[in-house]
Amino acid sequence: MSAGNSAREAILGRVRSALVQTERVPVSSIPRDYRTERPAADLVGLFCERVADYRATVERVEPGGLPAAIVAAARAAGARRVLAPTGVPQQWYDALSSEFGQVDDGSDIDTAGLERIDAVITTAVVGIAETGTIVLDHGPGQGRRAATLVPDVHICVVGESQVADDVPTALRRLDPTRPMTFISGPSATSDIELNRVEGVHGPRTLHVLVTPG
Description:
This is Lactate utilization protein C. It is a single chain. This protein is an alpha/beta fold. The chain has a single domain (38-211), classed as Rossmann fold, CATH 3.40.50.10420. It has helices spanning 3-23, 43-53, 66-76, 90-100, 111-114, 145-149, 167-173, and strands at 57-60, 82-83, 103-104, 119-122, 126-128, 133-136, 153-159, 163-164, 181-183, 188-190, 196-198, 205-211. Helix 3 (66-76) packs parallel to helix 4 (90-100).
C-alpha cells in the first residue's frame, strides 16, 4: 500500500471511529444551559433607536393617543387615501374616517388599486430590538403582503410586549407556517455608485408608533 493510501485509510478510520462514538452519545445528555436571550437594560428603547437608524420615524405613544397619532402621521405624510386592514381597532377606523372620509380595508383592491393608496396602517406581530426589524405575519390588522408593499407610506403600531431582544428570540414567537414580511426601515436600494434610493421595492416612508401593551 502506498504512503498516500495509507494516510487516507488512517484518516477515514479516525472519521469512522468518531462517528461511532458520536452515535453512542444520547442527545438528551448534551448540556443546553447556554443563554438563549440577550436582554437589554431598555429593550424598547433599543428597538426605537435601531428603527430610527434605518431612517424611519419612531414615536412612543400612550394607547389613548394612538388614533390621533395615526391620523397625524398620515396627514404629515400628505396622505389622501388610506388603508386600514380588517382587524385594526375600531377607534382607528373612526379617527381615520373623520379625517380622510372613506377608509379601505384592502380586501377587494387589486395591485393597480393599491397604487392609488397613499398610506397603509397596520399592527405587527413582533419587533426585534437588536436589528430594528418589524415582522408581520399578515394576520388580523396586518393585511395581505401586497397591501404593505405597494403604498408609499406604512404606519405600523408595535406594542412594547411584542419587542423581542434578538432574531432567535423573535423566531421562537413566530408561526413558521404563516407568510411573514421582515421590515427594516423604508424600502431602500443603492446603485453601483452607492447612491441610496428609497421606495423602489416598498414604502418610501415608515412611521412606527410604539405603545405600551
